[in-house]
Amino acid sequence: MNILITGGTGLIGRHFIKSFQQPYQFTVLTRNCRKAKRNLPEGIDFIEELPEQNHFEVIINLAGEPIVDKRWTVMQKEKICQSRWQITEQVVAMIERSKFKPTCLLSGSAIGYYGETGNVSTHEDAQVKQEDFAHSLCKKWEDIALKASEHCRVVLLRTGVVLANDGGALTKMRMPFSLGLGGKLGHGQQYMSWIHIEDMVHAIQFIMLTPSIEGAINCTSPQALTNEEFTKSLGKQLHRATWFSVPEFMLNMLMGQGAELLLSSQNIYPQKLLNHEFDFNHSNLEQTLGDLL
Description:
Elements: E1 2-6, H1 11-20, E2 25-29, H2 33-39, E3 45-47, E4 58-61, H3 74-97, E5 104-110, H4 133-146, E6 153-159, E7 161-163, H5 169-178, E8 183-185, E9 191-192, E10 194-196, H6 197-208, E11 215-219, E12 225-226, H7 227-238, E13 244-246, H8 248-255, H9 260-263, H10 271-275, H11 285-292
Helix pairs in contact: 1-6, 3-4, 7-11
């Protein structure tokens, strides 16, 4: 099976390639082939622009500017949006003009689509009550991808906080916790919806191979936890106290509007994956952290 991946050098992309390199042939769209080759296994094809004719059976679209690495200035927010919207438009255009159509397009999104959910367990069909920046970003991103539904099956990967031992949120958290500065964010009662990187890549493969799955899919563990609960579990695993607390005003000063991602409560439930009998291997946070740390 020939698979095209955009964002193949990112956390999810590179783990997916390393996990399934044996049965599949991967082509990675990248801005820098030389750099990408250093970060991925041998046997991968690299391209710096999309071809006129598509010969890929599956397209996995994960490209996008990291969303929490920099303060959300007006310019940075535009960069976050355009880095997702433009590549998705290009992928859809390639599908439209090609004689050979892929069986499916799996396109990135995020649980930020739902806005603030409080403590309510939220599945894919839930109505959005708060239309903030994250929702607007994801909504347009998804709408662009769905234009390809005339030609192939489209799945929208609404992804939560991905936990891995070589990048992503957990890597950023380890340093302050290791120094004894780890603690809850704000009041700590906001829900965090997370997923182990292994479950994430296996969910992508499961979705890819299950023709009855289409539309939005929540890629999160079935057991969301509050930020305070997450903090205590991480501190316990690292053998560090978690008495420190980061006040809301400090997060707003450091991150600007981007602090919303850390302070909003999102209790997101993977209803569709469970309905299709996907088996989560890592639904317990303490066991997940024990596996990764």
